[in-house]
Amino acid sequence: MFFFSSPKEKILLEIGLGFFAEVSLDEAKPIIIQRKKLFEEKVEKVSAEIIKIRANITRVNTITFSLYNNFISLKAHWVIS
User: Fold this and answer.
1) Which residue in 1, 31, 59, 60 has the most C-beta neighbors within 10 A?
2) Which are the contacts of 25, defined by CB distance < 8 A and separation ≥ 6?
3) Contact criterion met (CB below 8 Å) for 24 and 14
4) 3-class DSSP state for residue 12?
C-alpha cells in the first residue's frame, strides 16, 4: 500500500507490521514493481489451484452421477424381476 504524504513527490510506503516509510516516487517505483510481480505470481498459483479443484469437483460429480444411475438401473431391475 502507499499513501500520498505531501506535494513534494513523496509517498508513505507500507513496509509491514503497520510500519510505513516515507520515500520519493523514484525510490518507491522499483519496490512497487517488485510487489506487483509477487502479487501476479500469487494470482497465477491460486488460479492453478482453482483449476485443479474445479477438475476434482467435476470428477466427483461425474462419478456420483454414474453411481446413482447404476443404482437406479439395478433397483429398476430388481423391481421388474
Assistant:
1) 31
2) 9, 10, 11
3) no
4) strand
Q: What is the pLDDT along the chain (81 residues), one digit of tens a residue?
A: 555 555 568 999 999 899 999 999 999 999 999 999 999 999 999 999 999 999 999 999 999 999 988 887 777 666 665
CB 11 within 8 A of CB 5: yes
Structural domain spans, the chain: 2-80
Cα torsion 16, 21, 25, 29 to 10°: value is -30
For residue 2, give every residue at least 6 positions away whose Cβ sits within 8 Å of its Cβ, in sequence order, or none.
11, 12, 13, 14, 28, 32
Tens digits of residue pLDDT in 23-39: 999 999 999 999 999 99
